[in-house]
Protein 1
Amino acid sequence: MWIRKRIDISWRDLSRAAVYCLMARRADVEQTRVEALWSESALACLSVRSGWDLLLQATAFPPGSEVLVSALTIPDMVRIIEDHGLVPVPLDVETETALPSPETIEAGVTPNTRAVLLAHLFGATAPLDRHVAVARRHGLLFVEDCAQAFRGLGDAGHPQADASLVSFGFIKTATALGGAVTIVRRPDLLNEMRRRQHEYPIQPKREHLRRGLHCAVLKLLSSRIGARSLLTLLRICGRNVDRFLNSRTRGFPRHRMFEMIRRRPSTPLLRLLRRRIEAFDIDAQQAREQRGRRLVRQLEPVAACPAADVEQHAFWVIPVLVEDPEELRRKLLAAGFDTTQADSMCVVQPPCPSGTASPENARRMLDQAVFLPFYEALPIRELDRMARIITPGKPG
Ligand SMILES: *Cc1c(COP(=O)(O)O)cnc(C)c1O
């Protein structure tokens, strides 16, 4: 059984994570080192959500201000906007880029709009020049959420974005079992964020250690035999597999989200983060891209993969859009491929009394997407077999 997802960390780095828990160095010293890898605009945070929350604190937009957001994102990013007394306004996304078009941004701007937050989804980083230009023209703060799109230090976000948010959370590329780097190109905002972050408590080391152990268990369970045993066991116990696996990989418990994100990263987290960034294997990433393109080529045009033709692409995940996702998931499972639907993402709904249309294409993408297992351990011949199951009857 090929499980839906494997956590992107080696046993070697995981054992290092445990050793780093013994380090006595101060967290702020280690934080400076991580930030120095990027630029003077970098702020290392406990998570992307922590960074986004700090950024909104620093901007202090008047209550009721509108924030335009990609209609497809994770619910917590939207919750944070609401918690600041601001109004998230969804922008529908296009299938080709998984981003809203510049025209959609233009159409969403009102006299109350203060900011725009676009999420690069699935690993794709589509060009943003025209989006940035629209935001500039209207004097909006422009933020890009690169949580799913890390491809190494060489790609540190759009140089004209006011902020770029990169995640090293549990299920993300090059995970550090948590952590994030926010690049904030407005020194006034960066200083204010830094000042506020400094008042936060530091994440306890034992929490980081616990996450490492949890990760080790998940790694064991995601081997081929482990995955088969796990799925069989869950079925016997009558547990919902999707719900179980999602709850295992969520970063923080739901009801305590704000308490959890308003903390500073611990020394061992920062040390692991530095290691993951410094030792990031660009060659392996390029090989992944090539395999991703190969798979997508085999699926198209029978099954569409959103944003698959974007030039800069990490192929963090590969969603395929089909009319009947349930049926495809059953078929793939029977052939040994565990898949998922985008349970961790949501479609942002327009604010209540509003003229904005509901984001139809985002809804359709989310409803029709099946996320395929895709990681280094999956050999090409298995990827090919998976493609043939998805596109039966496709010649060649
Ligand atoms: C994972 C993710 C986040 C949150 O990242 P954390 O570092 O876990 O807070 C935000 N946005 C998107 C689109 C994500 O996929």
Protein 2
Amino acid sequence: MATANTSVKDQMSPARSSKPAAAQPMQFLDLKAQYATIKDELRQAIDSVFESQHFILGEEVQRLEEELAHYVGVPAAVGCASGSDALYLALLALQVGPGDEVITTPFTFVATAGAIARTGATPVFVDILPDTFNINPSAIAEAITPRTKAIMPVHLFGLAADLNSILAIAREHNLAVIEDSAQSIGATYEGRQTGSFGLFGCFSFFPSKNLGCAGDGGLITTTDPQLADRLKLLRAHGSRKKYQYEIIGTNSRLDALQAAILRVKLRHLDAWAKARQRHAASYRVLCADYALNEVLVAPSCPTHSTHVYNQFVLRVPQREALRAHLQKNGIPTDVYYPSPLHVQPAFAYLGYRQGSFPVAEKASEEVLALPVYPELTEQDQDRIVSTIASFFKSQN
Ligand SMILES: *Cc1c(COP(=O)(O)O)cnc(C)c1O
């Protein structure tokens, strides 16, 4: 067969095999590198789902829910279609809706406030802390009104928000806490996993998260088994028995294929977090050299927390110049987030303006994320560090 011949010849052609492999350009996040390390395990898991031809919910999803409930340290977990839906379903389970207010941070991915708005409730933004980029508890206390129903802190970049203070405020005012743990799976606070402190913990399995699937996926952990039951109704059309609908729900289920993939990856999650922490430690050594004059400030990590570095985010007043220098030298960076949510057109109806949250606004101007994925090589990291150092040397 001509095509088969061509492809075999192609693979064997001396022009290809003798050419030294060109150095791969550095990636900000190299998912292929991770795939290469677990390919066989993943293929096996995927094959077994195909053999079963059972694709929606089912045993794989149930097992993943059990394993993640155990990992996070809560009685129950409920898979769903995305991290965005995890937040949305948690709010629906609490019957948050029009007329209600939910307090959150403007310095986060859009889905946090988007989920609140989707229920018809009002997102109420409060400013962040400059050192952790996480929500400022004293600002939460000031924003509480009789309409406040919940607080939605985000454990941004993989570091827990100030949970003790947030939980104390929530208790005092009888508010639910819904943790946006999309970036923090595996991160601990006083020895316990994020996602286990509030009434709900909401996780995302978007491919760039520390535990990523092969598409979209999400999960809600809860400390209340009755609420878990309600979440299961909500994610599947309000139905427990076929063609019987107890409440209005939606279709937000997790696929068996995604669950099977996630169960494989969960076995590696802690090792991957350790690799991210090693990279962060090397970056910190560099930052220590430049921190005195505050030209390069490493992200803070309070001693009672473990950071899982979904992103390693520096604060750099000369961000644009450093970013351009890195780009010129083939080093990819990113900015999370270039503009806080309160100044985005989608949230203009809330009536905030530039100046409403100065700490978040300043962070947006100064943050710079460096590659920190587990498989990042030592050579690549050395190159990143020396290129940053050369930028600051050329400044003197
Ligand atoms: C990724 C993310 C989400 C949304 O998750 P999806 O699975 O992409 O819907 C929500 N909040 C934060 C903070 C995130 O980083």
